[in-house]
Design brief:
Elements lengths: L9 E4 L4 E3 L11 E4 L9 E7 L7 H5 L9 E3 L6 E3 L6 H27 L4 E2 L6 E2 L19 E4 L5 E5 L14 H21 L5 H32 L18 H8 L12 H19 L6 H6 L13 H23 L10 H17 L12 H13 L10 H7 L5 H13 L3 E4 L8 E4 L1 H11 L4 H13 L4 E3 H8 L3 H12 L19 E3 L2 H13 L5
Antiparallel strand pairs: 1-2, 3-4, 4-10, 5-6, 7-8, 9-10, 11-12, 13-14
Length: 548
């Protein structure tokens, strides 16, 4: 028996003992999930994206790296631990791979059984009656949703686009410290807040003051979080027999306490500041406490730090104060970034994080603006054009057969051989089924629901998977008996948009409970849900990204 669908994932081995490799699901911007094998590297989860090839790697940059970029190893961005790429596979992706293999095997077995029994056809008479039946519409393949993270960066040393939760110390590709990029991004966002406040300063003074206060608080929050991340990393690098670190509370909201904690690591985090900068840092930390905990009203403790402050007055706060606070914080973080590897970053004088954010945005935009899908499919240019054409010319999304002559007429510049190969590529990916008759140069083609899922977002502007999740929510909140026409009316969608989404939904309902009565408008007229069907639909919604 030949496993044609399973062979799509074959990367080695023999016909009877295949070695499989499955591409992991991707986020909307094309990143993949990674998961640190270091159990103490909270939160462990991060993303890897594409590479900005325009960044030139110098010897100075390479000296700060743990790895040669694009090696077969990955660096945990939270702990700096290095391990083979396969050790960073996310558990959710393992489950997804098992589902994909299971789907491929079941499809292959169903087709092989159909081939074996097709010669029997239907017969009657005697004591035995044999009836064979096979749906010519294969089950759609599993779909898995992945979400981008809020903090996305591009390493200013190797160009790797990636995403992390909270603070990441190292680039997961090359291992260079990227700590300063995180705080530079905070500075960029704070500057935008200040600009917004200044734009409303004349007519909305109270609102402007509130916006400035929030921006000021954001600086201290980012500053404190970054110092904590470096401190915990340093503690983790100490010998195993070192005394355990005391719990960290608000130590990094105070210069003296923070300096005392870092003394455990033989490090002064504020060594890069002069006396004036250090005094400004102290003043702004105190100013944050006044704004956050005393409604901005100066008390005696704050008045000791600020010569021009009077008890009972509102603390003075302007945009330049916030920018100055952020700049001093950046200087401290740059010093800590250098401490991580013993050398300062050669990109300190650049607005590296701003450039990185722009690069990351361009990577995501280019993916969204493609006129053909960027799914992990082995399709050539012509196959993608043919697939999109099937999506565009479908009137009702029902996957009706199209003659080979019609395909040939739609692509008059393509040779018969090239068109036949393009259709074969689509069939190998499960996007179409074909049937040939004697003398046909190109077979008749029937699109599957997977073709609509793949091409509809770029061909007609609707996404069957997203629509199927909406239908799933509606179905699960209703009665067990589902009237499809009524379900359709409730959406207000056209048949073209509704039918592919419905096909995805009923693929997760046992066939025995899906009506075979059809009038040409829908894949089915009605279906009935049991407890097992509801569980299957909830799991479909969960793996596809619907949060319940």
């Amino acid at each position: 028996m030949r496993f044609k669908n399973l062979e799509r994932f074959r990367i080695g081995g023999t016909q009877t003992k295949m070695k499989l490799g499955l591409p992991p699901p991707r986020t909307p911007s094309g990143r993949v999930y990674r998961y640190s094998p270091n159990e103490t590297a909270h939160p462990r989860h991060f993303l890897l994206g594409a590479v900005d090839e325009t960044i030139v790697i110098t010897d100075t940059m390479r000296a700060r790296m743990k790895l040669e970029p694009r090696s077969k190893q990955t660096v945990c961005p939270y702990s700096g631990a290095v391990a083979p790429d396969e050790d960073f596979v996310h558990p959710d992706d393992v489950k997804a791979a098992i589902k994909m293999v299971e789907h491929a095997v079941v499809t292959d077995v169903q087709r092989e059984l159909a081939r074996m029994f097709s010669s029997l056809g239907s017969s009657s008479g005697g004591l035995i009656r044999i009836e064979t039946k096979l749906s010519d519409t294969p089950k759609p393949r599993p779909r898995f949703s992945r979400s981008d993270l809020l903090r996305e960066l591009v390493c200013d040393h190797c160009g790797r686009d990636y995403g992390v939760y909270a603070i990441g110390l190292f680039c997961p590709d090359c291992g260079a410290p990227n700590l300063r990029l995180h705080f530079a991004r905070e500075t960029e966002l704070v500057d935008a807040q200040v600009e917004l406040a200044e734009a409303h300063g004349d007519e909305l003074k109270e609102l402007a003051y509130r916006l400035l206060g929030n921006a000021h608080e954001d600086v201290l929050t980012a500053f404190e979080s970054t110092l904590k991340a470096v401190y915990f990393y340093g503690v983790g690098q100490r010998p195993a027999d070192a005394a355990p670190a005391r719990p960290v509370r608000n130590d990094f909201q105070n210069v003296d306490n923070g300096r005392h904690r870092f003394a455990e690591l033989n490090l002064d985090p504020f060594a890069a500041l002069n006396e004036d900068e250090l005094a400004t840092l102290r003043l702004n930390i105190q100013k944050r406490h006044i704004i956050g905990h005393n409604l901005g009203v100066v008390d005696e403790k704050f008045a000791e730090h600020a010569d021009d402050a009077r008890v009972g007055e509102t603390v003075h706060l302007v945009g330049e104060d916030v920018r100055r606070f952020a700049a001093i914080g950046q200087k401290v973080i740059d010093h800590l970034d250098a401490w991580l590897v013993g050398a300062p970053s050669p990109t300190i004088e650049q607005r590296a994080e701003g450039d990185g954010a722009a690069a990351g945005a361009s990577l995501a935009t280019s993916t969204a603006e493609e006129d053909v899908p960027t799914d992990d499919l082995q399709l050539g240019a012509l196959a993608r054009q043919v697939g999109r054409w099937f999506s565009e010319q479908s009137r009702d999304g029902m996957g009706r057969p199209t003659t080979g002559a019609s395909v040939q007429n739609a692509f008059p510049d393509a040779s018969v051989g090239d068109l036949g190969e393009a259709i074969a590529e689509l069939e190998a990916e499960g996007l179409v089924t074909t049937s040939s008759a004697l003398g046909q140069a190109i077979p008749s083609v029937r699109p599957t629901v997977d073709l609509f899922v793949t091409f509809d977002p770029v061909a007609i502007g609707s996404n069957p998977l997203v629509d199927a999740l909406a239908l799933t929510t509606s179905v699960l909140s209703g009665e067990d008996a589902v009237d499809v026409a009524k379900l359709h009316t409730g959406t207000g969608w056209t048949h073209r948009r509704f039918n592919p989404a419905l096909a995805l939904v009923i693929a997760h309902v046992d066939d025995r409970r899906v009506s075979k009565a059809m009038d040409g408008q829908y894949p089915t007229r009605a279906f009935f849900l049991t407890a097992s069907d509801r569980v299957a639909l909830k799991r479909f919604a969960g793996q596809s990204g619907l949060r319940r």
